Amino acid sequence: MGMTAYYIFFSHVFYCQTIRWSDFREADDRLYLSPGINASEEAYAKKVIRLARRRNAAFWGELEGNPVYIWCADAREYRKYCQSSEGAGCSLGTPFGETYIILNPSGANVDVVSHELCHSELFSRLGWWTTTWQVPQWFNEGLALMQDYRFAGPSDSIARYEGYARRRKVQARAFRDSVRLEDIGSIRGFFGGGSARVMLAYMTAGTEISGLLMEVGNAGLVSFLDSVRAGGEFAALYRDMRDRPGRWREAAVVRPAGYRLRGRGSAFPLSTPK
Predict the structure, then answer these.
(1) What are the tens digits of pLDDT across the range 247-271?
(2) How many degrees, rounded to 5, is the angle at CA 93 between CA 60 and CA 107?
(3) What is the pLDDT of residues 162-177, one digit of tens each?
(4) DSSP character string of 170-214
(5) What residues pair up with 91 in beta bridges, in sequence order?
(6) What is the maximum alpha-carbon separation in the chain?
(7) Are 55 and 49 in contact (CB under 8 A)?
């Protein structure tokens, strides 16, 4: 009865866990390819994963996670392993420490794989319980956007922050409303609503995390996550990092004209101007 219920409610996770016994082929270490993938597509998949790992390693340092990559050939396969037909990629993690990255053939590229690999690395470092119950979705998605250059390129931290801030304002006008970080802390809160609202959630998260990185740098953010992993409470440490960035940053940084650190006293900066 237990296994039957597990399959019914988590069939996509079950399929990922049993990928080695499927008709997918292990083309490389922990890379499984659909039977529908040809030789040129295989070469592309390997190249994209290699570049995505290099990009994430430049941010994180040595990568601790080692996810299984499942490269699908069509939308049906992608839906089977991801339990969704949305997007070009998704990542899954289990309480047992396993991580999987599922790629949709439509749109999978270095940015998509880098985005999902960042999710996987955060999960590997903090574990299922902390990532699920302490880390807000806006932080998870905003951090992944820092490895995803579709909205803001690999420029300096100031230009990246300003790029996200501009896109957030444009998207807020399109949505005709504002989104607060506290509204997008859960998966349902982040992805609920139409496409304009979801894009605003992404741009809000990207603005928050790019602004944070401008204050503390990559090493400061990784140090923060190490403190969470050591048992610190996410919200309290995040508040401290936002209130006293000098304690966390790797080096002095220059802020763009008009940039102001969010006010002290709240756990998170909450407002998104229209």
Answers:
(1) 887 533 444 445 454 433 333 333 3
(2) 75
(3) 999 999 999 998 888 8
(4) HHHHHHTS---GGGGSSHHHHH-S-HHHHHHHHHHHHHHHHHHHH
(5) 101
(6) 62
(7) no
